[in-house]
Queue: 3 jobs
Job 1
Amino acid sequence: MSEDDSWAEALCRAVRDRADRSHVEMFEVARSHLHDPDFEDRVCEHPAAEPSLVDQWETFSGDNRGSPASYFDGTIVGRYDGGRRDVVVHRYRVTAAADFIHRRAVEILTGGRLVRP
């Protein structure tokens, strides 16, 4: 991991101490990287090396009660807004986790939503 990727590691591990931080504080480290084309690839490296992070991000998703908001369930990621939208089925949970983290970061830090090409 390069110093350049330290933000991705910090973002992935932020889920561990989520009870002690606001959602904005959890995701703030990613603010300047939200539009990087390799955001999810860089984020994906850390849960792949530490699989318990995938479980923790899925639990974080399940704990969310707001709508509209992104969700992560197994290999499925989407946006719930009175119905399931923008659904992507991933081959691996780790890529689903990275997708979810990216979507939630955009939602929480900008109030917008990640639009896929």
Job 2
Amino acid sequence: MTQPRGRGGKKSRERSKVTSLLLEALTRKVSTLQEELETSASSQSSSQGSLKAKENLRTQLILTIEKLQTQWEQLEQEYTQQALGVLRSSNTRGSGKNHAALTSGKG
């Protein structure tokens, strides 16, 4: 029983591309939040209320960064699995009729 050619591979490639784009977006977001965290840590403030607000912001930023890094790790793992699936499907696709046509010189 054979599946329609290219359909599953195309879906896998599309999923991999989406996952890759999500990884890039998360990477940018983490970088931005880390810069914001560094900026908030380096800014000086004298009032007790603003110190408390700054500490709350710092805590929120750290928690957000940790969540995003966890999401990034999960997406990276998913992307790796999808990429391996695409490679495996492209390797098995080339071993059938196409391989025979290539070796006989007929396309």
Job 3
Amino acid sequence: MVLAPLNPITFGHDEVVVTLSQGRTDHGHTGLGFWDEQGVPNVYHLDGHHRVLLEPAAAKQGAWLTEPVPIPPTALKQLAVYVRGVVKSLCQQGGTVDYGIDFIAAKGSFAENGDYTPPVGSTGLTCSSFVVELLRGFHLNLIDETTWQSSEDNVKWATGLAEIFDNVAKQVRAANQGDALAQMFEERARVITAAAPQGLRLLPTEVAGAVSMPPDRWPVAYNDAQGPAHQARAVLSEAVAAATTG
């Protein structure tokens, strides 16, 4: 595992990295780092409940880490081209992706041409499944979803998340900010509530941990991902502490 600081930028123009940064929990937030056609390094990630953000990597100071995608240089260059294509395609589609925690139902969300084409039954993506599915669109199957384990903690997490969306919807209505916006939050609460009993959750640290493993170990099973995920969580925690005190 590398997990080097994002800044100063060390990954090359024809490289793609998985980013890991401070999130709403100590499991972090994940995305992808790549160079655009104008020669600017960027971070590309699903933020909040539906916004897909393309931001200059140089502006991301503090606890932002990178893990290289460990594939041969020729394939890595092709992956960089693919990511640029996804960015362009999603921008043309409106630049948003619905937030949904059912990462198994979302399997196959990106087509070979880079279009976002969620399968029937998908309710959206999280920051973690956004990265996993984008890599899958390039035929890099990072994790074996069928091995992911459910837990009561994950059920509680999803239930609490649905309550947050419901409360935001109430606040939107109370502030007269529009029925359409309130209904969007209510719909997110509904689909999260429906998925909650599965007890499944894909963590950013699990994504970073899985991508740190040799490609011949992909797709990574749940149990195999946990060691690297714990290591990623520890490194991120140290980076957050250093950024806070520094």
